[in-house]
Design brief:
- With about 90 residues, the protein is mainly α.
- The chain has a domain of about 30 residues.
- It is built from 2 helices and 2 strands.
- The chain has a two-stranded antiparallel ribbon.
- The longest helix is centred in the middle third of the chain and has 31 residues.
- The protein is elongated, with a radius of gyration of 22 Å.
- The mean pLDDT is about 80.
Length: about 90
Amino acid sequence: MQCERGTLPDETHSMCREVPEEFLRPESGWAIGAMSFSATGMLVGISCTRLIFRIINLLKLKDLKFYIYISIVSQIAIIILYILCHSCLYI
């Protein structure tokens, strides 16, 4: 039996039922843990970027600084496009 998206067959495979939606509450431990993990990753990324730029300024490598800036911006753009494309597929 083929069911539409968002539905699953019941135990007897005679009809399709909607998949129940489940949400995390913001005060839940899992949600707080995920947000903390994400924030830690962002802080580590920003710290590493600042450290790299300080090293580049010490060595006076202006061209390298431009290439690193372009690579960071392109990585962020790719992540945003990836999220947008996958969220559009499941609407």
